[in-house]
Every structure is written in structure tokens, then in C-alpha cells.
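step=encode ok
step=design start
structure_in=
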């Protein structure tokens, strides 16, 4: 009897603990929402008070996008970005690679960067970030949005082309002895003027950019003055290379690892059904929780091949995400392989079209042949009569 009472007491204590944990989680969630509300308010106060500002969108905890009449304004806190990097960016060191950008420094607040991307227009009407742009071929939005909305159509090739353009951007940064630090779908802005126009890819996040010594390409070095991923950002640390997530060891190899995850996320977004778009980010977060702390595990164990992904592109992802940074491919090789994958997809698409035309011709000839035989048979029957 005493034992049963003790068990009941333990059960009640356990239930009380669970309830207490749930209440704490609820309070934390409310605090986060309140903090986000305060942050939005501060950001809106910082923005110019003009009727041109149409909307402000949170891309991450540090990056916002304000949609204005003729431009997109991306505003981002720079955190612990080194002074040398800030000076180089202010003096236009990467103006031939990045969109128009300015660094704002104020003693009262954390330094921040502003990237400006002009909005596309047709006949004076701004297109914005609308999926309707699919109708006339105009594209103007983040890689994440256009992929989930299938704005570029239902063929994988244009999305691979976006990744190829992003790889060229990464290669240019490495040539200039800069690391990208972090790259993801929401911080790549895609534009295309018309259905037959070229795709333009803009990097709108610069918080993790840093200069590295090109003589130490093959060495990972820890520099505590550099910005390292915040442990609270599970998505960021899950897409970062193991040496970055654990020790903040940035290198060209860590950029390549992050790019491998970018490719995987993009093709997973392409596979995502339209009725599951709202849960896509949640699934990424669950995958981030699953992979956390499993550095020794092979990347492909937790990143299965997307259904739409060509085998050579998936192999390229695996080449980018080797555990040892020395075994990963270079940015130049990455761009070359993606270009080859694009040509393979184009050749495959051409072959499919030719096969479809051939099949339709064969079917037509087959129908004509049987129609002729039917006519001959009727003629013979009539002549016999």
C-alpha cells in the first residue's frame, strides 16, 4: 500500500515537472515574440520615414528586407566583423562582386550594412516578390521563395543555373582572398528580366565575410576576433562545416561545405509539394537538431538524395561536404562541375524532346498505315460484291 502511494507520489511529481517545463517553454516563447516585436519596432524607427516603404520582412535575427517603391533595402547587423573588413567594404573593395552596399557606424548602436538591389519593373509597374512574375518570365525574389513557388518552372535546370551563378560569386570572392563565411537560400536574391534573359544572383548578407591569408589556403586557423556562428542559430550551425560549428575555424574549405548544404536545401525545396511549403523550414530545423553533435557521421547519412537531384550533382554535394576540409573541392572546381551538370541536364532535356517528337511521328505513321489498310480492305470487299 505504501509502495503504491509512493509510486503515485512520484507520478504526480513527474507530471508536475513536465507541466513546469511546458510553462517555462511557453514563457520563453512569449519572451522571444516580445523581443521580435521590439526589434521590429526599433528597425522601423531606424528606417527612413517615407511613404515609399511598403513592407519590412525579417529574413533572420540580424537581417531585414524593406520593400520600397523602386528598391529592396537589406539591413544587417555586423556583429563582431573585424575593423579591417569594415574598412575594406566601406572603401568599395568588393563593389564589382556585391550589390551597392554601405557600412553604417554609429557609437550608439552596433555597426550595420545596407545592401540595395533595384526592383525589376515592366511598363513602370514594380513586380516585387510575386509568384505572378512566372507568367511573363520576370523573376525578382529570394532563392528560397522562387524555388518553393516554382517561379522558374517545373524543370530543375534553371535552379541549377542559380546555384552555378552563386558558385561563380563564391569563386570571385576566393580569388580576392575573401571568405563568404555563411551562405543560405534566403540571402541569395535572384532576378531575371524576361523569360529568355540571364539570371542574376546577388548576395545580400555580408555579416560573415572576412579576409583570409591566401598563402594559408590549405590550413584552418582560429582567429578569435572573427565572427563565429551563434550557438542559438541551429540552422546556421547545421549548415556550417564541422570545424566552424565547433571551433570557428573558417577557411575556403568551410565555404565549400556550406555551399554543399545550400545545394541540398535548394533541391529539397524544389521537391517540396505546394501544400507543404509552410512546414519546409520546420523540417530543416528538425534536420538541424538531428545532425547536431554528429560531426563524425558521414554527411550523406543525414542528407538523402533529393528526388529531383541528378546523380552527378549529388556526388558533387558529397565532394563539398567531406569531413576533412583538405579533401573538399575548390570553388573553381565546384563552378566547373555545376556547369557540366547544367549541360548534362540540357542534353537530357533535348533528348527527351527529340524522343517525344519521334514517338509522335511514329504514332502518326502508324495511324496512317492502319487507315490505309482499312481503306484497302473496304475497297476489296466492295469490288468482290
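sequence_out=
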Amino acid at each position: 500500500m505504501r509502495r503504491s502511494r509512493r509510486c503515485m507520489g512520484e507520478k504526480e511529481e513527474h507530471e508536475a515537472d513536465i507541466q513546469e517545463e511546458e510553462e517555462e517553454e511557453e514563457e520563453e516563447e512569449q519572451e522571444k515574440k516580445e523581443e521580435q516585436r521590439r526589434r521590429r519596432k526599433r528597425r522601423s524607427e531606424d528606417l527612413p520615414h517615407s511613404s515609399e516603404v511598403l513592407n519590412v520582412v525579417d529574413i533572420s535575427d540580424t537581417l531585414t528586407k524593406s520593400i520600397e517603391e523602386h528598391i529592396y533595402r537589406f539591413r544587417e547587423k555586423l556583429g563582431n566583423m573585424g575593423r579591417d573588413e569594415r574598412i575594406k567594404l566601406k572603401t568599395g573593395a568588393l563593389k564589382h562582386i556585391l550589390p551597392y552596399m554601405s557600412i553604417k557606424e554609429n557609437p550608439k548602436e552596433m555597426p550595420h550594412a545596407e545592401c540595395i538591389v533595384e526592383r525589376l519593373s515592366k511598363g513602370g509597374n514594380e513586380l516585387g516578390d510575386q509568384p505572378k512574375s512566372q507568367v511573363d518570365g520576370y523573376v525578382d525574389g529570394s532563392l528560397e521563395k522562387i524555388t518553393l513557388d516554382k517561379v522558374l518552372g517545373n524543370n530543375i535546370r534553371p535552379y541549377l543555373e542559380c546555384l552555378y551563378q552563386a558558385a561563380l560569386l563564391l569563386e570571385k570572392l576566393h580569388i580576392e582572398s575573401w571568405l563568404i563565411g555563411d551562405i543560405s537560400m534566403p540571402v541569395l536574391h535572384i532576378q531575371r528580366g524576361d523569360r529568355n534573359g540571364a539570371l542574376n544572383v546577388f548576395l545580400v548578407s555580408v555579416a560573415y565575410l572576412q579576409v583570409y591569408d591566401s598563402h594559408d589556403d590549405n590550413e584552418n586557423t582560429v582567429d578569435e576576433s572573427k565572427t563565429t556562428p551563434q550557438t542559438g542559430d541551429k540552422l546556421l550551425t547545421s549548415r556550417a562545416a564541422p570545424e566552424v560549428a565547433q571551433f570557428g575555424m573558417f577557411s575556403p574549405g568551410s565555404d565549400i561545405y556550406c555551399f554543399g548544404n545550400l545545394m541540398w536545401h535548394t533541391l529539397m525545396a524544389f521537391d517540396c509539394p505546394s501544400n507543404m511549403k509552410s512546414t519546409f523550414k520546420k523540417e530543416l530545423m528538425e534536420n538541424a537538431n538531428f545532425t547536431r553533435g554528429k560531426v563524425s557521421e558521414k554527411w550523406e547519412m543525414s542528407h538523402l538524395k533529393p528526388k529531383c537531384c541528378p546523380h552527378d550533382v549529388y556526388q558533387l554535394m558529397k565532394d563539398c561536404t567531406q569531413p576533412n576540409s583538405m579533401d573538399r573541392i575548390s570553388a573553381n572546381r565546384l563552378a566547373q562541375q555545376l556547369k557540366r551538370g547544367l549541360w548534362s541536364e540540357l542534353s537530357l532535356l533535348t533528348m527527351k524532346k527529340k524522343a517525344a517528337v519521334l514517338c509522335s511521328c511514329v504514332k502518326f505513321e502508324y495511324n496512317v498505315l492502319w487507315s490505309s489498310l482499312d481503306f484497302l480492305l473496304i475497297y476489296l470487299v466492295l469490288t468482290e460484291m
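step=design ok
step=annotate ok -> The longest helix spans residues 331-384.
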